[in-house]
Amino acid sequence: MSKILLYYQFRPIADPRAVMLWQRDLCESLGLTGRILVSKHGINGTVGGPMSACKRYVRKTREYFKGMEFKWSEGGAEDFPKLSVKVRDEIVAFGAPDELKVDENGVVGGGTHVKPEELHELVEKRGDDVVFFDGRNALEAQIGKFKNAVVPETNTTHDFITELESGKYDWMKDKPVVSYCTGGIRCEVLSSLMINRGFKEVYQLDGGIVRYGEKYGNKGLWEGSLYVFDRRMHMEFGEDAAQLGHCVQCDAPTNTFHNCVNEDDCRRQILLCDDCASDASTAHCGGTVCAEVAAEQA
Ligand SMILES: [Zn+2]
Ligand SMILES: [Zn+2]
């Protein structure tokens, strides 16, 4: 039986390269594949392989990364063609490697962690004053988000600092703000960047949307599908999930992203219904040039 492990930990790493080499050897010796990033602030990884190898990996890795939580998921080595273990300036690319501070307990000066049930308590107590702030790329929120969440205009995580400093979100600086993302790692950094820029009461959803969805499904404050970074592309918390996404061509409900047919020049991922996606003349993002390319290919 095969499994996937997802994990991260923020803590100072004096010699990221040594940790990278150790992790690469460890994965190779256990036959695990996947993707691991190491920086001076910590580690962020997704690895897959046989159950017994995963168990040994957890035990060995915890010898250095004490107390690290691992999330077990369905899947295996077949979900990752190879092993990639790299040293980077950041384990989540916000473009602020010198601003992030970590110690043995994690990120220094980040938002207050709230568990799903604590989030509900906060909303009960503070009502509409609570602002949900989406810590993902805007695209991901097209198919699912917390009700009434604020979705920043971000193509990549790199865009957050410009967004936060644009003045657009200054109205929420005195409000309780809950940042959330897929599994929680992006908000570890984002919430600290927000606090550094004058947001006074910042929370971060522990375990992210994944843990929230496991607890409340579609019966809570979450709406729609969750964008995921593997070949599934999206997942739902039960069959009663709301359909938030719409085809850019015909407006039909859909939660499936496709690459624009003009792949050479347009890198956009767009929502398309099955009909529009299967016809080359409509499998484009709507841009003038892309529409022309699509017409030629049809
Ligand atoms: Zn369509
Ligand atoms: Zn396009």
From TrEMBL:
Enzyme class: oxidoreductase
Listed SMART domains: RHOD
GO biological process, one term: tRNA modification
Gene3D superfamilies referenced in this protein's UniProt entry, alphabetically: 3.30.70.100, Rhodanese-like domain
Domain of life of the organism encoding this protein: Bacteria
CDD domains: RHOD_YceA (cd01518)
UniProt keywords, alphabetically: Oxidoreductase, Transferase, tRNA processing
Alphabetized GO MF terms: oxidoreductase activity, acting on paired donors, with incorporation or reduction of molecular oxygen; transferase activity
Annotated ranges, domain Rhodanese: 126-221
Catalyses which reaction(s): uridine(34) in tRNA + AH2 + O2 = 5-hydroxyuridine(34) in tRNA + A + H2O
EC number of this enzyme: 1.14.-.-
NCBIfam families associated with the record: PRK00142.1-2 (NF001134)
HAMAP family xrefs: TrhO
Role summary: Catalyzes oxygen-dependent 5-hydroxyuridine (ho5U) modification at position 34 in tRNAs.
Family of the protein in this entry: Belongs to the TrhO family.
Name this polypeptide is given: tRNA uridine(34) hydroxylase
Species, as recorded: Corynebacterium tapiri
